[in-house]
Amino acid sequence: MSFESKTILVTGAGRGIGKAAALKFAELGGKVVVADINTHNLEDTRAEVESFGGNCYLYQLDVRDLNQIRKMVDFVKSEVGSVDILFNNAGVTQHIDFFDIDGDDWDRIHGVNARGAFFCMQKIARLMVETGNGGRIINMGSIAGKGYRRASNAAYSASKGAVISMTYSAASVLSEHDINVNSICPGMVDTDMMANILSLRSEQTGKSGSELREFITSEIPLGRMNEAKDIVELVVFLAGPGSRNITGQSFNIDGGMIMQ
Question: Given this model, what pLDDT does residue 161 score?
């Protein structure tokens, strides 16, 4: 599969799944625009993308800020013209007990995961419509948004449920413009975010990180956590020609943790 004629925008590209996706698209010949709130991480991503000999454009972005999203779209127009594929990946979470979630927690998590995801999708979709070449949008959901009972917190579950619902709505609206919209719903992914959650849970419970990891893995029917590359393979498929008639779907990639 080649993405040589494609421009791909990846949000949350500074580390983890977003970074792995940016590297994979670059390896496959794509022109990559990477956006993240952390410029130090972005510089690392750009350096690795460019090591493939690919084109990489960097943009610092807080997805909670609509003005920054608008400016990013202007940047994309001036630097690369348009976007063929959006991997709408930026997200945050932490472990918070149900009774401990406060308004600030709710607003921060929804500001990134739901509000940020929607407006990135909306603004890039408008650019795709203006360009008239169709496009692909892949939103980052989670099995937490489908009722997974051990989600990091209820606000996170609600925000990812919103992403899944927005995916359905957007797919319906954008289909007439030949824009496919799907979401992916990972289970446990072995990234820095997971390491941070395990570290906090270790402090709270007194159990070691390895004990917690063992317990989580024991609940996965296939017996292994996702690696970032597992998620990226699905992203690449949904961005490629083999998925041309797939839209409005949410795909679990969780080793069988939930089956719906």
Answer: 98
| 42: CATH | 3.40.50.720
pTM of the full structure: 0.93
Residue 113 lies in a domain: yes
Range of the domain at 17: 7-188+227-253
* Token pair of 7 as six digits: 């421009």
Residue 17 has pLDDT above 80, yes or no: yes
Task: Determine the Cα–Cα distance for residues 108 and 194; give it in Å rounded to an integer.
Answer: 18
From 57, 148, 156, 168, active-site residue = 156
Q: Which of 258, 256, 194 is nearest to 222 (CA)?
A: 256
Active site (annotated) includes residue 156? yes
- How many residues can be counted in the chain? 260
Is the pLDDT score of 52 beyond 90? Answer: no
